[in-house]
Amino acid sequence: MRHLLSTTDLDRAAAIRVLDTAAQMAATQGRQIKKLPTLRGRTVVNLFFEDSTRTRISFETAAKRLSADVINFSAKGSSVSKGESLKDTALTLQAMGADAIVIRHQASGAPHTLAHAGWTEAAVVNAGDGMHQHPTQALLDAFTIRRHLTGTATNPDGVGHDLAGLHVAVVGDVLHSRVARSNVDLLHTLGAEVTLVAPPTLLPVGVGPWPAAVSYRLDDVLAQGPDAVMMLRVQRERMSTAGGGFFPSPLEYTRLYGLDARRLATLPDHSIVLHPGPMNRGLEISADAADSPRAVIVEQVANGVAVRMAVLYLLLSGDGDTPGAAPATGA
Ligand code: CP
Predict the structure, then answer these.
(1) What's the rounded Cα separation, in Å, for the pair 216 and 198?
(2) Quick one: 129 exposed, middle or buried, by C-beta within 10 A (0-12, 13-18, 19+)?
């Protein structure tokens, strides 16, 4: 693996390898081994052109726990605000010796351009590009689902398992969601059955070829007893008011597609609820659903650190093409 730009970069074996490596990383954290020497002397740049809380902080935490040097770059307050291009920004980071660039950008495809335009030698990790992909989010979601739904007392993280036989409902603003796209691809690769649930206005045109079923009726899908329900954030900032804005209205949306205590009670006992965050409490998810024991939303954030440690390790440790390689552990 040279870069991680999309979950479509990962076949089943590669995806399981990332998840299994993340399980090893999580185990070191569980043993209170906060710092591994693995990436000592390497430099990871967090290049964020869009706001982020979870992704930016967890990549920073992950890199530091692997002993890498970390440079945080935010477009706000940088020369990007004076009009500097992505190319010149990348050339500047290359001159400073970046080994990995973690990029979030509002333009779909920006990480791909950065990886392939010849402006940098660094490994590029997509931390979310426009409405396109957010691969590490999908990996941490898969890690969380696998842990809860395939883990056993002797193998709590479900190491070695895929997600075959599981049914995941992905609910809400699919149209604007890079999380949904990444998840549909990865869940399919790992053998899960996926149902997208959304009003027709919040589904992309041409969703047909996606490897997922589609429903407009949340209650019908919940009645099928999905193993995991992934609620999506309604992305009002990406909606064009010129195009009619948000339809159905927020009240109607909550009535038809919001997850609340009543809907939660219809799920099988083992079902879990995910949300990538940030949440619009009271819109796509009620406070009692978000805070219920079924919700694994805070755990997703914690798992994000282990998954990002795994991704940085596999990209930078030099054995990224060797299936089954184990991360070095240490003090
Ligand atoms: N899930 C996610 O990408 O959250 P942030 O925007 O806070 O990084």
Answers:
(1) 5
(2) buried
Give the CATH superfamily of 136-299: Aspartate/ornithine carbamoyltransferase (3.40.50.1370)
Each residue's pLDDT tens digit, 174-227? 999 999 999 999 999 999 999 999 999 999 877 668 899 999 999 999 999 999
Please state the ipTM of this predicted complex: 0.98
CATH topology for the 7-133+302-316 domain: Rossmann fold (3.40.50)
Protein residue with least CA distance to atom 4, ligand 1: 54
Q: Is 237 in the pocket of ligand 1 (CB under 6 A)?
A: no
Taking residue 71's Cβ as centre, other Cβ atoms within 10 Å add up to 17
Largest CA distance in the chain: 56
CB distance 143 to 19 below 8 Å? yes
For residue 154, how far is its CA from the centre of ligand 1 (angstroms)? 32
Tell me if 207 sits within 8 A of 155, measured CB to CB: no
